[in-house]
């Protein structure tokens, strides 16, 4: 049986390819891609001649059946998107699931990712983050998603299209307030790449004067919580009460750290230094 290669391709600059990607594209029997007109530019850049078939969000189940049958017949196939990793906010997810169900081989060829690249240059917390993909088109559902992430303590990343950008920014202003740090990233790795950092008001003002172009990565800084005032002796007493109720000491520290918005190490220090 053949193998499906999930191939990460450049998000903009065609020089962002790996030797392994080029070898794979030359090796496979054909390439399934979002837009053949887009993928051919990459192939022409590296003088690769290969059969292309389209596979995108509007492709029928018959197209997936065809790819699966080709794999069963021993063909090796590369799956690519127009930019970045296939399967991430991408119809390739469906195909990958069906290939796995059939018990066929899959191999990933790592490559550029708009989400990770935008996060790396954002200046926001990169230790933990949430990626939500494209926000809903419907305003009520979009606000519902924003409300869900309102108190998020991790960096939140969305994709957004240019024609919905202003509506989304206004919704963010309404739901999250005016103080949250926002970073807008577009055309990353391209000649006209743009990285904008500022408050939601500043970014709205910018795009009231400038027509948004290209798809955006929109990153929202974590909600900063102020520590709650508490008495050290009261904290120790509450931890003792939890432990007496049968709760593990570490879990008691975690619960109180969350309640008082403190680091668990700080709670531990208070408790262990109680008699000093």
According to CATH, the fold-level topology of the largest domain is Cobalt-precorrin-4 Transmethylase, domain 1
How large, in whole angstroms, is the Cα Rg? 24 Å
Please report the number of helical segments.
Answer: 11
Shape: globular
Number of strand segments:
10
Low-confidence stretches are none
**What average pLDDT do the residues reach?**
91
State the helical fraction. Answer: 40-55%
Element-level helix/strand string: EHEHEHEHEHEHEHEEHEHHH
- Structural class, from secondary structure content? alpha/beta
Largest sheet: 5 strands, parallel
In spatial order, strands of the major sheet run 3-2-4-1-5
- What's the CATH superfamily of the largest domain, by name? Tetrapyrrole methylase, N-terminal domain
Strand content: 15-25%
Any guess at the CATH architecture of the largest domain? Answer: 3-Layer(aba) Sandwich
Number of domains: 3
